[in-house]
Amino acid sequence: MNINRAARPRVLLTALAAGTLLLTSACNDNAAPAQDKATGTSSASAAPATTPAATPKPTGEADPALKPFYGQQIAWAGCPADPKAEQAKIDISGMQCGKLHVPLDYANPATDALDIALIKLPAAKPDQKIGSLMVNPGGPGESGIEMVEFGAKEFAGPLHDRFDVIGFDPRGTGASSPIVCYDDKQRDALDQIDEPLDPAARKTEHVKNATDHAAACQAKAGKLLPFVGTRNTARDMDVLRAATGDKKLNYLGISYGTYLGALYAEEFPKKAGRLILDGAVDPAADSLDEGTNQRIGFEKSFDRFAADCVSNHAEECPLGSDPDKAAKKAADFLDGLRDHPLTVKDGRKLGSDLAWTGTIRMLYGDEKTDWGYLRNALGWAMKRDKGDMLLAFADDYNGRDKDGHYNASQEAMGAIRCADMSRPAPTPEKAQQVVAKLQAEAPLMSKGVSVDDYTEPGCAYWPFKTPEKPHTIRAEGADPILVVGSTGDPATPYAAAESLAKGFANATLLTRVGEGHGAFGKGNTCIDKAYEEYLTEGKLPAPGTRCS
């Protein structure tokens, strides 16, 4: 077996070459069923540009054209039966569902509209209710409805007592006019292919796939594509705030949800109440640098996982006895699946890219939960030639359920990310710097990476170009914001939280010392107490607080 001619994991290479980030929910790692994770694509849509006028146009509630939307009443009712919830033995009988009517294009609100799907976990103590707590689990493309459905237990206690916890599927996702570009068989076929090792062949394939992807999405969702950017979702969230009767928005956003929360605070600073931004994205960062740092973050997490496997779980670890060589042994096995894929029970093949994707999926978790599952999966694959567990993790990441049906999260992620931040082509010098950094700091996940992978602009083949640019968000006039970062977060490295908090005019940084993506739902009592005190009392943790 030639295990040295390694492919990079498709999930990282594709996103990094496109200039996008792979951001998923932190809380869903523990709460959602297998089909609710997503991975990046190489393309996306753009938000419409606006032209400043001599007299600023009224926005939000002040815009007469938006009055019908801001004045609507949500018809809350019992939620319809959800087979996934029933299968997971989740009781949703106490929850309520509804729809929010919003403009397709906020610049022309009378032309067309769409409905945003909602769910509400009513406050357990209505007589003590403060208001609503809006939540977003990340992605972009993840379902806020499923965050509440499957993660209701994470809000137990003061948060559920005093807030109506409200989740929503952002436009273009879930049950809110989802962007669907492929059928299930097409998605299976695309996911089964390992990318070429040769840089020139890989670039040719990337251009073809990106062009085909853009055409498929344009054909099936062209009307929606220009309007799925995060700034429009932030505007939807303000309409939702008004429709629930809240004067200010209280919000918990995880991963990509921190970008949504930051844009909301920028767009509506006087309406921004108590905002927790957990697993932070830095809106001022160059997307290529951010993606590079993300891959390095996953490599470091992979190294720590492998060393922990050998040092602390020797009886079940398939990675030998040397902590310094364990990560390479795992990487060599995953790379070798390119030439010798494993056949799983349903007849599909587990190749290198899918195996790496499944591995990366479990690195979003921490050493107490997902690392154990990853140890078992690698053991079954390496010792017994059974790849079903790794493939199940890859399916989970790719949004594929056990019946072979895909959700729309992958297509939505691509569309939203490019609507938010397409980037110019890097200079040859910049591309070489990226490759050199990856080869030095993420060698196992960057074998074969070349300058050819980074010569094109991000979202080059998408039909719409966004005016959005990376920038520091100050949110002058907003209430104090709580930014949270985890020291071992591979998907949104800790430095991004530091930068986001520093950029705000009024923010406090809270640190979780530990592995995994995001802090919410990790069972850290220090974090949980800080969230409860801030959201229910407005009490911020002391500057410099670190929760071990």
Look at the structure and give the mean pLDDT.
91
What's the number of helices?
A: 19
| CATH H-level homologous superfamily name of the domain at 54-166 and 228-286 and 471-547 | Alpha/Beta hydrolase fold, catalytic domain
Strand arrangement across the biggest beta sheet: 1-2-3-5-4-6-7-10-11-12
Name the poorly predicted regions.
Answer: 1-8, 26-54
Q: What shape does the CA trace take?
A: globular
Roughly what percent helix?
A: 25-40%
CATH topology of the domain at 54-166 and 228-286 and 471-547: Rossmann fold
Measured distance between first and last alpha carbons: 43 Å
Radius of gyration from the CA trace?
22 Å
Number of E-state strands: 12
The CATH level-2 architecture of the domain at 54-166 and 228-286 and 471-547 is identified as: 3-Layer(aba) Sandwich
Summary?
The protein is an alpha/beta fold.
Could you characterize the architecture of this molecule?
GO terms for molecular function: hydrolase activity. Belongs to the peptidase S33 family. Residues 458-547 form the Peptidase S33 tripeptidyl aminopeptidase-like C-terminal domain. Residues 37-59 have a biased composition (Low complexity). It holds the Pfam family Abhydrolase_4. With 548 residues, the protein is of the alpha/beta class. The chain has a domain at 54-166 and 228-286 and 471-547: Alpha/Beta hydrolase fold, catalytic domain (Rossmann fold, 3-Layer(aba) Sandwich), CATH 3.40.50.1820. It is built from 19 helices and 12 strands. Strands 1-2-3-5-4-6-7-10-11-12 form a 10-stranded mixed sheet, with helices on both faces. It has a two-stranded antiparallel ribbon with strand order 8-9. Strand 8 (342-343) and strand 9 (349-350) form a beta hairpin. Helix 11 (287-312) packs parallel to helix 17 (428-441). It is globular. The relative contact order is 0.18. The model is unreliable at 1-8 and 26-54 (pLDDT under 50).
